[in-house]
Specification:
With about 425 residues, the protein is an alpha+beta fold. It contains four helices and 14 strands. Strands 1, 4, 5, 6, 7, 8, 9, 10 and 11 form a nine-stranded mixed β-sheet that branches.
Length: about 425
Amino acid sequence: MNAFAKLSLSAAALAMGVLAFQADGKPMHRAMAKPAKKQAIAGIAVIPAIPSDIPGGAGSASISQAANFAWQEFIALNWPAAPQTGLPNTRGVANANQKFGGDAQGQPLVWETMRSKVETFPGVGDPPGYQSTSGIANPDYGYDHLPVYTYGTRSKDANGNQQNPGGSPLAVGPCQGQSSVQQPAWINLDEVNQIGEDTMYAGIVPNGATATNSQPQLIRFLAKGNRAFYRYVAANQYWYHGAGYNTAQSNFSNAAATNAYPAPAPTIVTPPGTILVKAAWRQLAPTENAQDFHTQTVRYYETAGSGQCYREATWALIALHIIQKTPTAPYFIFATFEYTNDIVNADGSPVEDQNGNPVGPQPAGPLTPPAQFWDVNNLYYDWQNPKGSTAPVPPSGQVLPFDQQNGAWCNVGPA
């Protein structure tokens, strides 16, 4: 069975929001399967072409149409990639001579060859392989250059604008016991949390630091951008926060604050066809079968004294997030895929089957576990009792407005 058969679609929907996609200045083996035959199932074709929009437009799309669009993206982006030589039109390009699921051990997939965020937003200097537009029609600005990961902290001028090159790169070498590599892994896991909001762990992996991983349970992440995204950033030299970038950002912020639209030029507006991906990876537990996962060589980072070092190992993909800006969805279409056994009950039993159906669902209210909210008049409400029901004062020592130890108390003000 193809390892991707165990991935399920969590959501495919239109959403509005602001995307931040830049470097912070710090730093599988694929389960072999019988190649899929070209076929159409419920309107989904197994082809390497990335869909450019939902037929009929995103605004009138049904959930099924949105899901079909998401699966078409998934199939195309997980197609075996063309040979990666650094030549033009190779990164982010499918191998037309291979079929879905037919990639060889260690061969990257289409999305895996897209530029990592630090290749688009290097810590210092130009993006690797960056080329000017002189004498070049429809320039790619060196997008196909083989991966180089450059971290650092840029210097600023007297006005607070970042400079380019802006300093020297950080020395991020191999950790103790890690051999140097000729080319870094395509999977560059330089994020350890969800945009600074939360950190995630895999309880199935044994806890405790090892000689090669200080936090074996920690789930690590990456972000990548396609050719259209990189070309826009490179054409405007937005890979660093120089005067041009800061002016564009200020124009948008001022327009948003005063509700004065459209904002004066320049502003930052990525083109239709922009695709960004985020992926979550982890090491497997000794009890897990690598054949059940899509695995690949990853690069992850550890602390070494006062700096950072890298290690490379074979890890498993556990979630893939794809967003695309289309002509009818200027705020991007979001699709998230996760392995069907990502979430289990406390006893290890599955929450869902392979088709996403709940296994033995238990009746529950909107808030599980039930949350109780307490206000300054000693009144509380939860999903079973409306606001205004009399409740005792929280036990001594409870900290407002929120405490998770013995109850979820929230100061919501006078009744």
